[in-house]
Amino acid sequence: MFVRLEKVIVALTEWLNHVRSSNPANTNSSDPAESAPKVSNTSLKQDSSNINAGLHAKSSPSSSKRPSPETQLSATLSENQASKRDEESQESRTQPNRGFMAFLSSLVVGLSGLLFILVSYMLYISLLICGIAGVLAYIVARLFIVVEMFRTLAFLPQDAYVATWSSEIPNIG
After folding, report:
1. pLDDT in tens, 95-111
2. Which of 45, 57, 110, 157 could lock 63 by a disulfide, CB 3.0 to 4.6 Å apart?
3. CB 43 within 8 A of CB 82
4. Domain segments of the chain as ranges
């Protein structure tokens, strides 16, 4: 019973993985290469512009100043905000899958509990039927023995000695 339940759970998990992989909006997968953090095109452009600006700053004698801490702070804040937005968008994409998985797991647990109760009642009813059939078979066998005993005694001659518990009773007739 549990082997079949395990097969059903494995099949549902494989189906969900297939559905997730076929959905282009979802970036979560079981492949570590795919689950690596992805860099957006805008951050690549910003990095390349920062590198180009650094090269131009080194080559030109008038711009020997370093970038101010305020610009660095604002750049890190904008990167943090962008990463938070990415995380929120990924969470919003995966949230329905979590809800569906929670529903699916509660459904499987509920059905397995219901199946356990159903099997236990079926077992109880079958044991009850077997018990009643056994008692009836015992009664029929005992009645058959008594009937055969009386049939045997009925066809014996009058003077025959039958060794039974009633053989000590004197024969009056």
Report:
1. 557 778 888 888 888 88
2. 57
3. yes
4. 40-157
The tokens of 42 are what? Answer: 């805008």
> Which DSSP symbol is given to 169?
S
DSSP label at residue 172: -
For 110-148, the pLDDT digits (tens) are 888 899 999 999 999 999 999 999 999 999 999 999 998
Return the pLDDT at 77. 61
Identify whether the C-beta of residue 31 lies closer than 8 Å to the C-beta of residue 17.
Answer: no
Q: Rounded to whole angstroms, how far apart are CA atoms 28 and 97?
A: 11
pTM of this structure: 0.34
The span from the CA of 89 to the CA of 2, in Å, is 38
Give the CA distances from residue 20 to residues 54, 90, 130, 158, in Å, rounded to whole numbers and listed in that order.
Answer: 42, 13, 51, 95
